[in-house]
Amino acid sequence: MARSPLQRVEGMTAASLSLAAALSEVGADIDRRLDQFLAIPEDPRADLYRAMRHAAIGGGKRLRPLLVFATGRLFNVDRDAVGRAGAAIECIHVYSLIHDDLPAMDDDDMRRGKPTVHKAFDEATAILAGDSLHALAFEILADPNTHPDPFVRSELVLDLARAAGPAGMAGGQAMDLEAEKSTFDLPTVTRLQALKTGALIACSVEAGAILGKVPPEGRTGLRGYARDVGLAFQIADDILDVEGDEAAVGKKLGKDEGAGKETFLSLLGLDRAREQARMLVDQAIEHLHAFGPEADLLRDIARFTLERDR
User: Fold this and answer.
1) Which residues fall within 8 angstroms of residue 170, CB to CB, at 6 or more apart?
2) From residue 115, how far is each of 17, 91, 161 by CA, in Å?
3) Other C-beta atoms lying within 10 Å of the C-beta of residue 110
4) Which CB contacts under 8 angstroms, 24+ apart, belong to 154-162?
């Protein structure tokens, strides 16, 4: 049986064992929910649903839903509410992967160890599958089953819309496309990744606090944590793109270097990039100083960004 990334880390602590259990639990929960949301209809839309299921069910780290779960746990949020919010954010993440893989974007053939949606189906179906997952995310959050308070639901929708749009993930992707034609310095690459990767990670942490009805002024530490984890995650991704195993990562590596894009690794070098990632993880953990053992899962997630192999 294949081992999880955490099980390949030597000297596992009780906390890392807890993280391994949380990864497994949240992954299974998200797959179960998506299986229900994406039941295949007996009509001509069947292939669209099959394409959505192909991309969304099975595989992936489920980091974003895990962050919703870990943050919601700080504030004793209802488990079903956390699961629904996590599924919604995962839908946005998967939609972005489907579209990023298209020939007009990154033109990738493999994702999560299987053919990308436009290869397994066709480009038109891939576009519609991404569009549909995008819409499904907001349908889930706006549903009263996610939370009985309409103000909580509207704040969840607003925060995810900002994280997914031009001031977040989509804006970061636009910068990433421009990076193939321009030379970016370190502040610009940092801004790019804070939008493309960091915005949705921050939204995941924010969602748990919104569900817990924590006021915006009470989320400062969590926002700092999310910002630093997002950047550390991307630096680790850049390192994996050069040193990783394609079979473990589940996609083609080395594409940024081949496209001539500046990355944290190309700008800092391997040793400085590793040092920067470790510093960001330490900073992220320090942002949680106001919390006790109830935040240990968030602390372990921060450390996991450096230990993962995919």
Assistant:
1) 164
2) 31, 18, 28
3) 15
4) 155/210, 156/85, 156/88, 156/207, 156/210, 156/211, 159/203, 159/206, 159/207, 159/210, 160/88, 160/89, 160/92, 160/203, 160/207, 162/199, 162/203
Instruction: Please report how the helices 296-307 and 270-286 are oriented relative to each other, as an axis angle in degrees rounded to 10.
Output: 170
Which residue in the block uniquely carries the two structure tokens 């006790």? 292
Give residue-wise pLDDT tens across range 108-151.
998 888 999 999 999 999 999 999 999 999 999 999 999 999 99
DSSP character at residue 41: P
255-269: average pLDDT: 78
Question: Directed axis angle between helix 186-193 and helix 169-178, to 10°?
Answer: 140
- C-alpha–C-alpha distance, residues 149 and 199, integer Å: 25
Q: Which positions ≥6 away from 198 have C-beta within 8 Å?
A: 226, 227, 230, 231, 233, 234
Q: Is the distance from CB of 263 to CB of 246 less than 8 angstroms?
A: no
pTM score: 0.90
- How is 98-117 classified by DSSP, letter by letter? HHHTSTTTT--SEETTEE-H
* CA distances (Å), origin 228, targets 180, 199, 231: 26, 11, 5
Tell me how far apart the alpha carbons of residues 203 and 9 are, in angstroms, rounded to a whole number. 28
Helix (H, G, I), strand (E, B) or coil at 20: helix
Q: What is the pLDDT of residue 119?
A: 96
